[in-house]
Amino acid sequence: MRRALGILAALALAAGAVLALAVAPREATQGNVQRIMYVHVPAILVAYLAFGVVLGASLAYLLTRRPGADRLARAAAEVGVLFTGINIATGALWGKPTWGTWWTWDARLTSVAVMFVMYLGYLLLRAMIEDRERAARFAAVVGILAAVNIPIVHFSVYWWRTLHQPPSLLRPGPPTLPAVFSTVVLVNLVAFALVAGYFVLRRTRVLALEEELVT
Amino acid sequence: MTDHWEFVLAAYGLTALALGAYWRRLHRQEQALAVTRPPGAPPRREGARAEPADPPPGPPARADAAAPGRRGAASGAGTAS
Fold it and tell me: How do residues B42-71 score in pLDDT, each as one tens digit?
């Protein structure tokens, strides 16, 4: 199943890249640099999804104490950090030619950076505590608290005056993007979600094998 | 506005690099664990207690030597924590 998911994810990624780089039309105002949106937006949406899984699995761990829930939370946190890193890096690469700067302490950018650092802290906390059960319990609490960042990041563009534009997809009302652009974003979102799912499955397996060797 | 293809390619290249590096890391971890794991070892069920490891070769350790000051536990019963 993992292998099939991996192949499907790779195919979806390739299709998404072709659509984004070759099929989607050139945007009238920004030109071709707008094509960065097709990785930048799906990356943060998949990171939200991964951190949502961390929240659910952390709650499940605290309620049931099943090691599988803890492994899922840890794997999803790693994958969420990976995709948040991609979002921040591609955002900087998009910001330089359009805003004239790689980084600004705008509410959206700052809140994403805070979220990134909090989940990095979650992973560091796990690495610092040797006792597995204790690390899992502490991490579950941090995993629940850190989820507060998700709505803060998403709604920061409404709550504060920002340089960053409001959401184009996950917003009240119809999408502001023309159908052709939003279709390419959605294809890439599905591709990234498949990749994230594949990574989480593999990482949970590695964690299970590691625990097997330790015990 | 100029197209800035170099930024577009950098963004896609960086994404591919990050995803590829993480995939490679997972692959290596799995390979390393597969080598360490004894061949044919059954996967552990969720919540199952770990089996005690095989004793190391050589004479069995004395229980009273492992727990200095504890007397009357030479049978080994009650020494497992």
Answer: 555 554 444 444 444 555 444 444 444 343
Please tell me what DSSP assigns to residue A178: -
- Residue-wise pLDDT for B20-47, tens only, equals 999 999 999 999 988 876 666 655 555 4
Q: Where are the domains of chain A?
A: 2-214
Task: Give how far B57 is from chain A: nearest CA, Å.
Answer: 19
DSSP string across A5-36: HHHHHHHHHHHHHHIIIIISPPBTTTBGGGGG
Q: Which fold has domain A2-214?
A: Four Helix Bundle (Hemerythrin (Met), subunit A) (1.20.120)
Kindly report whether the global pTM for this prediction surpasses the value 0.90.
no
CB contact under 8 A, B30 and A205: yes
Token reading at A137: 């319990």
Q: How crowded is residue A123: how many other Cβ atoms within 10 Å of its Cβ?
A: 16
ipTM value for the complex: 0.91
Select from B6, B19, B49 the residue whose CB has the most chain A CBs within 10 Å, as the one to mutate to test that interface.
B19
